[in-house]
Structure formats: C-alpha cells, structure tokens
Write a structure and sequence with these properties.
Length: 265
C-alpha cells in the first residue's frame, strides 16, 4: 500500500490509546503520535507511550512522540486561551518536561511562543536536564506571526496552531497567514505541521465534510510537511477512519503538486 510523503500526526487520548487501537491507527497511516499535556494524567500518557512502543516494534516502524506542553494558558468560557500573566515556561511545563524526558519523547512542542528567546529558554531547560530534544514552535499568537522569521530560524520545526491563532487574528485572515508561514518554513528548510480542526466533523461522523477535504488538500499542496488530527483521534468516535481519510486525501493531493520535496520530522 502506498503511503503519503506528508506525515500524519494523530493526537492520542482515551478513544485511541490502547494497543489494539494504536495498531489500527498505524495501519491506517499514522506516522507520529502527539500527546496533549493540557489533558490527561501522567499514568494515561505513560500507558499511551508504552503501547505505542509495543505497536511500533511489532510493525517494524519508528513512530515518534510529540509532547505538546500546555504553556501559559488560562481557561475561558469557550475553552482556553493565552494568559499573558503567566511565565512563558510554566511550573507545569517543567514538571511535564521531566516526565517527557524520562519517557523518551522525540519532540517537545512549545505552546504560545512569542519570540526566538522563548525557544532558547526552553532549549536551556531541556539541556539543563541532560537531554537534547528538538523543539516544535507552535505559532498561535499575533506576535509569533510578526516574529515568524526569527522563530522559524531558532526552532527545529513549526506547528501552525490555527485554533488559538484565530483568537488573536481575524479568522478570515487565517488561510493567508497559514500560506505565508508554510512558505517561510519551506524556504528555511524547517518542517511545518498544519493543525487544528482539519477534520473536526469526524468527532461524530465516519466521513469528513467536503470543506475539510479541501482544507487538508490545500494544506498539503501549499507545502505542509505534516497535517494533524487533534480531538478527532483523541476522543472522537471514528479515530481510525479520521486517519485513513486524511491519508487518502494527502495521497491524492500529492498527485497535484509541482514539488515533491518534504522536510520530515
């Protein structure tokens, strides 16, 4: 079976963390596992990592783990948002980082990055713990868009967090911000992940909407190195179908690209 060059990142949670489900997700096309440390317990995350290692070994594949740190977020009526009263790297982040290093995660995703200095501070915390882990800078604030060049230069990879970005940037501008960020990352040779609400209807539907298919296709054609599923696979009713649908869309999109170059994570 042919697989897409674009990598599929699936967020793992209660709906998908068992060995049996992870095995099906890998078969469907999951290339990378993301753990969202804004949710779940250490016990749960440890079980997901252990189960993935077992499945990956059985499949003869290397499937990296992204530990997505919460960052300085606060609760709102609609969920959560950036909280400017908190330190960029919170005490929770440092506790979570200790956990991630102990469990051998391959990537750290840093939330609400505002400058290259924020990334350097995170890198220092990682090195202070005797580890060397690549950092994925999440661009989800207006200031991060404005300082995108310095952030991209400092980070090992970039994630375009369209959900939180839509809280600070008018939603009608998001497609063009996304396109510009992808182009900047491509020029710099930095892997870029496009994320958030890519197949959100699949929380409760076995098939994506036409708009979602278009969204994923255009993200691939624009030059994304990876596309990401969030709650669709973490707590949705159809995690395997969501990964399979994204893989199918990515494969088709790649047939219509001028360039096949990818910067793998």
């Amino acid at each position: 079976m042919s697989t897409s060059r674009v990598q599929i990142v699936a967020t793992i949670g209660p709906a998908s963390g068992t060995e049996a489900m992870l095995e099906r997700l890998v078969e469907a096309g999951m290339d990378i596992m993301r753990l969202n440390f804004s949710h779940g317990t250490y016990e749960e995350h440890a079980s997901y990592i252990a189960n993935l290692r077992t499945v990956a070994k059985k499949a003869g594949k290397h499937i990296p783990v992204i530990q997505d740190l919460s960052g300085p977020r606060g609760k709102t009526e609609g969920g959560h948002a950036f909280d400017g009263t908190k330190q960029e790297i919170t005490e929770k982040d440092l506790r979570d980082l200790d956990f991630g290093i102990a469990h051998g995660v391959e990537y750290i995703a840093q939330s609400y990055v505002g400058s290259a200095e924020d990334i350097r501070a995170m890198r220092a915390e990682i090195e202070r713990r005797g580890a060397k882990i690549p950092i994925i800078a999440k661009i989800e604030r207006r200031i991060a868009v404005e300082k995108a060049d310095e952030i991209i230069a400092e980070a090992d990879a970039v994630m375009i967090g369209r959900g939180d970005l839509g809280e600070e940037v008018p939603v009608e501008q998001i497609p063009f911000v996304e396109k510009e960020l992808i182009e900047k990352c491509n020029r710099a040779g930095r892997p870029v992940i496009t994320a958030t609400q890519m197949m959100l209807s699949m929380l409760a539907s076995p098939t994506p909407t036409r708009a979602e298919v278009t969204d994923v296709s255009y993200a691939v054609v624009a030059g994304s190195d990876a596309v990401m599923l969030s709650e669709e696979t973490a707590r949705g009713e159809y995690p395997v179908e969501a990964v399979a649908a994204m893989e199918k869309v990515a494969l088709e999109a790649e047939k219509h690209m001028n360039s096949a170059e990818r910067h793998a994570l």
